[in-house]
User: Fold this.
Amino acid sequence: MKVGIIGCGNISETYFNCQKIFNNFEIIACADINTEFANESAEKFNIKAQSVDDILSNKDIDLIINLTIPSAHKEIIINSLKAGKHCFSEKPLAMNTKEGLDILKISNEKNLYVGCAPDTFLGSAGQNARKLIEENKIGKIVLGTFNLMSHGMEHWHPNPDFFFKPGAGPVFDLGVYYITQLINLIGPIKSISSISGTATPERTITSEPRNGEKIIVETPTTLMGSLEFHNSAKIQFFCSWDVWKHKHSTIELYGLEGSMIVPDPNFFSGDILISNKEQDWQTINNDSMLLGIPNKTDNDGSKIANYRGIGLSDMIDAINNQRQARCSLDLAMHVLEVMEGIITSSELNEVYYLKSKPNQPKFLDETEIEKLKV
Ligand SMILES: NC(=O)c1ccc[n+]([C@@H]2O[C@H](COP(=O)([O-])OP(=O)(O)OC[C@H]3O[C@@H](n4cnc5c(N)ncnc54)[C@H](O)[C@@H]3O)[C@@H](O)[C@H]2O)c1
Assistant:
């Protein structure tokens, strides 16, 4: 499938490169509201730079990858659909459920696919954890925790403003990986109870080139609470950009027969720890599975697995075979409602009951991945 990218910022290089990993798409043009960024990317990847309007009316393009900032996601997705193109968007799908419903309506009317990141849950750790749970290795999951805590994003991203505006914050920006992973592992969420806080009303950028500039915080930087799943599992969460250091693990799941620690869902691999009742932890390494093999050097020099693009590749395969994509619009709508529900519950000081209830995305096995890889 011929593909165009809109949004040539920080994450775009990962997407430009993923066409070398997966075999069913080719990126032929790119656009950005800032033409300089589009021109730079076009030159680097030897493709055509176009205006946003021109890429949308480009007859050779069947699908748009939307890598703009969250506040532009809805507009770009809807304009792609109106131009007769499928769209795969970076997360979050939109700023709120109302925007999500507008996308769903046009996607249905046009009979075109919309898919959404994150796709990291399709990595080796997420899929192996899913397999171990389905094999009943820790019994029925009844309880758990997830923790994502750091001191924000203003120390590394060149333009970190959007992280502190509605549509981002720790839940919309990073919680999205944890929530999607948990739905992959234990199914949809039924209700939410949460509280929120903002430790400082202003953040100072310490990354270059805008070192020293201030950002006004417009969305809570800490959210804490609990999620109840349709299978009755209860998961406690702590999402914060107000914490310098901590020693919690990312996701812990407690079953009737044992416990499991799932690695950081922002990554494709990492070790799973599993224990049966009171036995010691056993480490399960996932680096030899297809979407766990290290293929990238991280900022700290360590080798990691980064297979962003598998969600897009799976969606293109789904379009070709008329089946539901794993990173489906139904899943993204539910994740969006959960994220909004976390904020709403904290604002109204009451339990939020979800209206959406998607199916768990289908397990992705190695033979299917093999078919999609170059
Ligand atoms: N940076 C990361 O590591 C990372 C990782 C995973 C997901 N994401 C997600 O990817 C998206 C983009 O993140 P980023 O870090 O690349 O941001 P960025 O600010 O670096 O890049 C966004 C680009 O979109 C362009 N843009 C904004 N509005 C536009 C519009 N209406 N039309 C055309 N172009 C427009 C901007 O000019 C900019 O070049 C976000 O939704 C983010 O949550 C980022």
Summary: The chain has a mean pLDDT of 97.
